[in-house]
Design a protein that fits this description.
Elements: H1 17-25, H2 33-41, H3 45-69, H4 74-82, H5 84-116, H6 123-139, H7 142-156, H8 158-162, H9 183-197, H10 203-206, H11 217-241, H12 244-249, H13 253-258, H14 269-300, H15 305-321, H16 325-359
Length: about 375
Amino acid sequence: MNQAGVNEKYKVSPFYVFFLVHSMQTGVGVLSFQRVLAKSTGTDGWISIILAGLIVHIFIWIIYKIFSIVPGDIISVNNQAFGKWIGNFFSLLFVLYFLILGMTVMISYINVIHVWMFEEVPSWAFSVVFLVLIYYIHTGGFRTITGIAFLSVILTYWLLFVLFYAMEYSEFTNLLPVFHHTPLDILKGTRSTSLTLLGFEMIVMYYPFIKNAKTSQKYAHWGALTTTLITVFVYLVSLVFYSQKQLELTIWPTLSMTSIIELPFIQRFEYINVSWWAIIIITNMTIALWSASRGFKRLFNVQQKYPLWGISIIILLTNIFVFDIDSLYILHKIIDPYGVLFIALYLPLLLVIIYIKKLRKRI
């Protein structure tokens, strides 16, 4: 066993890290990121996405570099770097971040369902269904969660080909002009893409569950690269389908594109799209809430099901009493910029601290 206390039989092969990273990054943000990005960088938005993708690769390298010095998970590393009490404080911030991220994904998707499909169904009803399903998946352990991540990627890739239908109505001159924004504008666009590409940081919790974890780094990079390329593709298709003004005013450009599809046996194709997207969203929520409950287990030495029950109750009460657009806006603001800034600043600082301690042979 390693410092995080994971038995070999509960671990997954390094190859599956591709699916864990890719499935977690591909979430509800893909449905709406184009609008904010178009406002800041317009036709140069694809450059911001590529830049954001490169930054993700840097942070994946940092994460693996940290664990090459201190094996285990982020809680083990924090304790080595700062001691038990201060280390546990920073670990608790990570756990709360995972909880808020999972809650944000769930509430965002429920909002999509309300607008596009079932306006009259209360949000708590959807949250109960999702939370029961997530708990059932969690009872199977991390290997089951990995299997769900694998299936979510395999079963949803056909949705990409749906976007080719929009090409028939596209105007490719909308891609011009290129390189007409300042570097500052490009950086602002990169920040707008950050919520879409988040999810790779969950590695800090499930790293001990990977067999020969050091060898999984290339699969983590491949997963992040695949997400970046898909995000670029979705943005380019959106650019040629919408005018600049339309894209800035459309809340869910990806879903709106699919609404033009009409088949002999179904007129509202976006119903299929929204429903099928649940497979992806369930994976997002499952990994995020597993990371949060695992963190609570490690911090407070309790069975993982108990913090998962507590987390579920918090999310359910949030959906019952404070679910509205304002609460969703607040959650997004917590994740971006504060959550993103925390990850961006803390991980490099943590690497520097443990590297210095290693040089002094304290680790």
